[in-house]
Design a protein that fits this description.
Length: 612
């Protein structure tokens, strides 16, 4: 339950005024409930003539608070007898019924008020959890997501949060209301007869033991159930991403069988959880009835032997209060099962919320507005974990306005190297400097504000072309957006679309061709107008015509900027100021295109292979 108390402390503090309100309303509801039961005593007396004595009026302050119930009972009987004498038993019964109905109305109104005050609390906590997860996701380093499945993360922010809502926050009403009712009822029972209450409390552990046996494995099974749900969501995500390959390899049945296997496992474990949870109500109902029977036997035995501390009427009243205590006890046990189930989901959510972000902002981080001199990598090494190093002792200098090209085989560390500059990862050894300042001492926002990215896969959002281009610049005007599109060779094809700049590009830009997507991403970088540009094989996936248009746009973009370009096609980087050849995380050759060709080394072999 430590996780539950952590949630209580973290999220409930934001809504303490709602909690105070619902506590007050439920206390009022519990008190009205107890007093409404006292009206039953004269009703029972009238109907069954249990007590035929004559009662006189007692002043309300007689005997102090310790004798309050006796005074209430006496005066209730007194007024009932007065009503019977004046109006007859039938009318008196009707009037007492009206009083009971009025007290019940006040009780239910207070109960409704308490529940209504919980609505903003419940919905607010769910919103806060979902917002906290999303905030954490966008700030976690990229290395976190290389170890996690997208489907699993999606499940945690959707299904797991929904489970927390259904299991934990939906139980708040029961958790807040029922302890108040139980406290008031037990207090009343102690006041009526502490001897009977002591006997009752000795029987309660029987009820608690039965409930505990049911809920013991509920949390672990719920954790397994949510994990199986994540597997199914992950498979759906993989299927949607790879549908073309599935169809090409006629693998529909194979994928269907895989999915059905996962859903069958999810169904089996969820059935076991549902069965165990369904056992809660009948077990608690049975154990509650057993408790009532034992108290009835014990109280009856005392009355029959003439040693009971209360008379028969008060014993009936005691049984009514005791029976009323069972419902909040059962609801509290039901809330306990629900919380155990929800805590499994909360643990999965906490794996994201408590994930360590090793890209930390330095204290008193410096802001940087522009690039004045250049970028330097000094003896930089990097590894994702304590295993094999990806980069080994890299030394590079890129002066302002220069273009540095990185080439080499796949897996040589090119993309990892450029990811270190905006601090998507931090170096394991060495340092990266911009204008002589270690980038770890710069504010992350100002550092990344200097850098524009154009990647091999153009990432567009399911929004209009206008908003995709303006993504990196708030308040961009239409004229600025159009100018960026013209420089990126995108304006003409945009204007040919049905809604121009207001055309929706679809999921990940699926309504555009590869070349169109790439030119939109270049326009986005142009509008941001960064002094440093990182190109990650920006033309490698394009056809010849699209490559020409994109390359022309890139050359315009690079003209006044410091550029680091990862190149797959060597023809696109012939005019770079320096070309570095990476092999297994090390720079094995460096120089201009002509110098590297003259060396007859690794670069020459790559160039000759592309000429074939």
């Amino acid at each position: 339950m430590r996780t539950f108390y952590h949630i209580m402390g973290k999220y409930f503090a934001r809504y303490k005024h709602y909690i105070a309100g619902t506590l007050g309303m439920n206390i009022v509801a519990a008190l009205f409930n107890v007093f409404s039961f006292t009206v039953l005593l004269p009703i029972l007396q009238i109907l069954f003539k249990i007590d035929t004595g004559h009662y006189g009026f007692m002043p309300w302050g007689t005997g102090g608070m310790g004798n309050l119930l006796s005074v209430v009972k006496n005066n209730g009987y007194y007024y009932s007898q007065q009503l019977i004498e004046n109006y007859g038993p039938a009318t008196t019964l009707l009037l007492l019924g009206v009083v009971l109905s009025f007290l019940t109305l006040l009780k239910t109104a207070a109960y409704f008020g308490g529940s209504a005050m919980l609505a903003p609390l419940r919905t607010g906590i769910v919103r806060d959890i979902r917002n906290d997860i999303y905030h954490k996701i966008v700030h976690l380093p990229l290395s976190f997501f290389s170890e996690e499945r997208k489907g699993d993360i999606m499940t945690r922010i959707t299904a797991d949060v929904n489970e927390v809502d259904a299991s934990i926050t939906s139980s708040l009403d029961m958790l807040i209301k029922n302890p108040i009712f139980i406290f008031v009822y037990v207090g009343t029972m102690i006041y009526v007869s502490w001897e009977l209450t002591l006997f009752t409390l000795l029987v309660v552990p029987l009820l608690a033991f039965g409930i505990g046996r049911i809920g013991k494995k509920l949390k672990s099974r719920s954790l397994t159930m949510q994990s199986k749900l994540s597997d199914s969501v992950s498979q759906i995500e993989e299927t949607l991403s790879g549908l073309r390959i599935i169809k090409a390899f006629i693998a529909e049945k194979k994928m269907t069988d895989r999915f059905e296997h996962v859903t069958n496992e999810y169904r089996d474990i969820s059935s076991r959880v549902a069965i165990r949870q369904s056992a809660a109500h009948p077990v608690s109902e049975f154990l509650g009835t057993v408790m009532i029977v034992l108290v009835l036997w014990f109280g009856g035995w005392l009355i029959f032997n003439g040693s009971s501390p209360i008379d028969a009427e008060m014993f009936i009243y005691y049984l009514i209060i005791l029976y009323s205590t069972l419902q909040p006890l059962k609801e509290l046990s039901k809330a306990g099962y629900a919380i155990q189930k929800g805590l499994a989901s909360m643990e999965r959510i906490n794996r994201i919320l408590n994930a360590e972000n090793n890209i930390r902002e330095a204290e008193n981080a410096q802001s940087i507005e522009n690039l004045e001199h250049g970028i330097a990598l000094k003896d930089v090494s990097f590894s994702y974990s304590e295993g094999r190093e990806i980069l080994h002792h890299i030394n590079l200098t890129v002066k302002k306005g220069q273009t540095l090209a990185l080439v080499g085989q796949s897996g040589s560390g090119k993309s990892t190297l450029v990811d270190l500059i905006p601090r998507y990862h931090d170096v394991s050894e060495g340092r990266i400097e911009i204008d002589g300042k270690d980038i770890r001492q710069l504010s992350i926002r100002s550092l990344r504000g200097l850098i524009g990215n154009v990647n091999q896969e153009a990432i567009l959002f399911n929004d209009t072309i206008r908003n995709n281009i303006a993504f990196g610049k708030d308040g961009a005007t239409q004229e600025e957006i159009e100018l960026a599109a013209r420089i990126a060779n995108a304006h003409e094809f945009i204007m040919e679309m049905e809604d121009g700049y207001d055309t929706n590009v679809g999921d990940r830009g699926c309504r555009l061709s590869g070349g169109q997507r790439q030119r939109i991403s270049i326009a986005r970088a142009i509008l941001k107008n960064p002094p440093i540009l990182i190109l990650d094989e920006a033309t490698s996936a394009l056809d010849t015509e699209s490559e020409r248009l994109v390359q022309d746009a890139l050359e315009r973009l690079m003209a006044t900027r410091t550029t680091i370009a990862i190149a797959h096609r060597l023809s696109t980087i012939k005019h770079a100021d320096e070309i570095c050849v990476l092999h297994e995380g090390e720079i094995v050759e460096r120089g201009t295109h002509e110098e590297l060709i003259a060396k007859q080394g690794y670069y020459k072999r790559l160039n000759d292979m592309q000429q074939l």
